[in-house]
Specification:
The complex is a heterodimer of chains A (327) and B (443). Chain A has 327 residues and is an all-alpha fold. In chain A, 60% of the residues lie in helices and 0% in strands. Chain A has 16 helices and no strands. In chain B, helix 11 (384-392) crosses helix 14. Chain B is of the alpha/beta class and 443 residues long. Classes of the chains: A mainly alpha (327), B alpha/beta (443). At the A-B interface, helix 1 of A face strand 15, strand 16, helix 9, helix 13 and helix 14 of B.
Chain lengths: 327, 443
């Protein structure tokens, strides 16, 4: 031994978990759904994912190195994760240059302009996604369907878009439903949509893995999905011909992706379980509201971003239960 | 379902590698250094001077106030000097240095191993003997026992909780005392109950010590008033407030003492020391110390005379490993890293942990990713991430408003932080600053 002993305050042991490990666990949880998206949408899905991940890492490196002049953190797993989530939120046919713009906005504006990992208020991938959606509405809403059917070029509207358009034209739900994919199709991913909307079931499996490895807690996803079911359920009970049923809402669009992977982003969600339940409930209600009355067929990205803005407020007012019952 | 406390908590690897090592008597060293402040409260006042001859068990420093404790010589020999030496805090502390000659004890002490179960003392007599023999809490906080068991005016004790939790990783001294001195612990418990005038006692033990639970359950048969409570393993269950919550379901109010819910908590080691003090007239001058660590040749539990330098214990456990990077007095969660191997064993030394140099250094601090794990881990329901920030920015009002003074410094937040942030370091800073502000306000 050297004669010098380390002296530092307690505790002297530390969990073997780390921020980096958490990021990679989330990535791992997303791998099955990613593989499935390649199976469903073909090699284009892989192209989109690779471009998004590479672009996010590259922009993080370049901006930190040449503009912020700080130590680069592009390998800490968070840029990779942002890239994957960005890819999960776009159609497989999206041109490469739009992906680059999305990645630049996600990393540059969504994350680094706020001070980097941990300081951003809004979910970076969603900032990128919403920017692309508003700027390139056509390219962002062209959905190639299942290439496994043998016909490559067919595109179709998402079930949510179909239902919205038909309701607007005065068709009752009972006539629209037969035109839509079945619940089983939606669960397995035989529908048009973003990469990450392909399979609800694999997203749920990944979510269960994250729960098990304690990357996330149940509060946010259960609250988002629960409030979606309750709110859409009330509307459906009032008028089952004018509103889609709750199961349909759960299985379509980015509900699973949003509830399990986007809303649970640690940086942009509340610190306490109680706060996460409020946060999630807000997302669910706003999502259903946008889907029902808004201009866009899908609203969970907007809902999450809106609720992200409330997180500091929630953290200020929703305190954990103190031991001994003090205020 | 095993009982435990509700809020927070963590479960670090237990690493109780010395659990099967029976307590061995450590050889008396050539010289001992006995600090006059080995307890919470006022330092004691030395009553010996250079050149005096002392016996083991002889009073060498008199209690220096109401919250203070007598200090006795742990050896026989000659007082070499009364001087300062750095203790585990790193600061030089006043103490008595004694050169050892032989092993002579005070005549009044019963040195036989026979168990003395019967007693006919009044409550006051028991408290008197505890005071006289310098008994303090041996769990680590070293609060004088004679003060603890006499409730302040207007408060009434309803139950005694004996703490056999030993939730710190690595440490096994309490575990060994429970296995090897169960009868003495039961007598000590009954003596404490008598002193406190209560008729209910619980002994809380975590379920990772099934042998101790089984043995003590056998030993309390016939004593209906003492109940053994097995507890789910969770750190910091050995904290007074957490133990009371786990066993009784009651929450000590913020800023309050356990007596506020009618409870007094004492360590199993303290119960044993009370037995020795009352039944054997033996002052507290030796205790069980675990010497452990991944690189230690023979992880051990020693019965050690107070004042023995740490180096002697480490030597007896197979010499200091080459790879040692940090030496901790106590456990890895709340223990103190010591700067020198000459630091003496005192009443509060429960273990010496040698950490490998690879595990001694802290990891690099990364940005907070707001995962909320520190909040979920905090057994007091605080928000460590927030307290760290407010303390760092010296926003003392905010820090106080967010209950920084309730922090028990268990370290669960820092332990669990995936970004290795120095949460507890800043919270301690916040606590001491806010504490000062509160004290100056009262003036």
């Amino acid at each position: 031994m050297s004669n010098l002993l380390t002296v530092s305050p307690s505790p002297h042991v530390h969990t073997d978990d780390s921020a980096r490990k958490i990021m990679y666990k989330v990535v791992l949880a997303l791998v099955p759904a990613m593989a499935w998206s390649v199976f469903v949408f073909g090699i284009d899905a892989l192209r989109v994912t690779l471009i998004a991940v590479a672009a996010c890492m590259a922009f993080e490196y370049l901006i930190q190195r040449y503009i912020l002049k700080t130590e680069s953190t592009f390998t800490d797993g968070s840029a990779i994760l942002t890239g994957i989530l960005l890819a999960f939120n776009v159609p497989s046919s999206l041109p490469w240059w739009i992906i680059l713009i999305g990645a630049l906005v996600a990393i540059g504006i969504g994350k680094l302009s706020f001070g980097g990992l941990g300081n951003n208020i809004f979910n970076p991938a969603l900032v990128g996604r919403v920017f692309m959606l508003i700027s390139f509405p056509v390219q962002m809403t062209v959905w190639p369907t299942n290439t496994q059917s043998g016909i490559d070029a067919v595109t179709s509207a998402t079930p949510l878009a179909v239902i919205k358009e038909s309701l607007k034209n005065g068709k009752p739900i009972s006539e629209i439903m037969p035109e839509l994919p079945t619940g089983m199709d939606m669960l397995l991913g035989n529908i048009g949509g973003s990469l990450g909307e392909a399979s609800a079931i694999l997203l749920i499996l990944g979510g269960l893995y994250m729960l098990l490895r304690k990357v996330i807690t149940w509060h946010t996803p259960v609250s988002v999905l629960g409030s979606m079911v309750i709110f859409s359920g009330i509307l459906w009970l009032i008028n089952s011909e004018g509103f889609a049923n709750p199961v349909f809402h759960l299985l379509t669009g980015g509900a699973m992706l949003g509830a399990i992977y986007m809303a649970t982003d640690m940086v942009t969600s509340p610190m306490t379980g109680k706060g996460q339940i409020i946060f999630g409930a807000g997302i669910g209600v706003i999502t259903i509201s946008i889907r029902t009355w808004g201009a866009y067929p899908e609203g969970i990205s907007f809902a999450i971003l809106l609720m992200n803005a409330f997180v500091p407020l929630i953290n200020t007012y929703v305190k954990p239960k103190r031991f001994g019952g003090q205020k | 379902m095993l009982k435990t406390f509700k809020l927070g908590g963590v479960h670090p690897p237990e690493n109780k590698i010395s659990a099967n090592a029976a307590i061995r008597q450590l050889d008396i060293p050539k010289t001992v250094f006995i600090p006059i402040s080995q307890h919470i409260g006022a330092p004691s006042v030395p009553v010996v001077k250079k050149g005096d001859t002392v016996k083991a068990g002889q009073l060498i420093a008199q209690s220096g106030g109401f919250v203070s404790a007598n200090i006795h010589s742990s050896v026989s020999g000659k007082v070499k000097k009364v001087d300062t030496i750095p203790d585990s805090s790193g600061y030089p502390k006043m103490g008595v240095v004694i050169d050892v000659e032989g092993n002579e004890w005070e005549e009044a002490i019963d040195r036989s191993g026979t168990l003395v179960k019967e007693y006919s003392f009044t409550s006051e007599e028991i408290v008197g003997k505890i005071l006289e023999n310098g008994i303090v809490g041996l769990g680590g906080a070293t609060f004088p026992t004679h003060v603890k068991i006499v409730p302040p005016k207007g408060m009434k004790a309803e139950m005694l909780l004996i703490n056999g939790v030993e939730c710190e990783p690595y440490l096994t001294s309490d575990h060994r005392v429970m296995l090897e001195k169960p009868d003495e612990i039961i007598v000590g418990t009954r003596l404490l109950m008598k002193a406190m005038k209560v008729d209910k006692a619980y002994i809380g033990i975590e379920s990772n010590k099934p042998d101790a639970i089984k043995l003590l359950k056998e030993k309390v048969q016939g004593y209906k008033e003492i109940v053994i409570v097995p507890l789910k393993v969770k750190y910091p269950q050995g904290g007074e407030k957490q133990l009371i919550k786990a066993v009784t379901g009651k929450e000590v109010p913020s800023g309050g003492l356990p007596i506020a819910v009618g409870a007094v908590v004492s360590n199993v080691g303290t119960a044993f020391a009370v037995y020795e003090a009352v039944q054997k007239n033996k002052p507290l001058f030796e205790r069980v110390v675990t010497v452990t660590g991944k690189g230690v040749k023979t992880p051990s539990n020693f019965m050690v005379r107070l004042g023995t330098p740490v180096s002697e214990l480490v030597e007896a456990a197979g010499s200091l490993p080459e790879t040692t990077g940090k030496v901790i007095s106590g456990g890895p969660m709340m223990g103190k890293a010591i700067a020198s191997m000459d630091v003496p064993v005192t009443k509060g030394t429960s273990g010496i942990l040698l950490m490998e140099s690879a595990e001694s250094k802290r990891e690099k601090t990364l940005p907070c990713i707001r995962c909320g794990r520190c909040v979920s881990a905090c057994p007091m329901g605080l928000e460590p991430y927030l307290l760290q920030t407010t303390a760092e920015k010296q926003m003392w009002e905010e820090t106080e408003k967010n209950n920084v003074m309730d922090c028990i410094e268990c370290g669960s937040c820092s332990y669990t932080c995936p970004s290795s942030r120095p949460l507890l370091d800043y919270i301690r800073y916040g606590k001491s600053s806010v504490g000062q502000i509160i004290r100056s306000r009262k003036k």
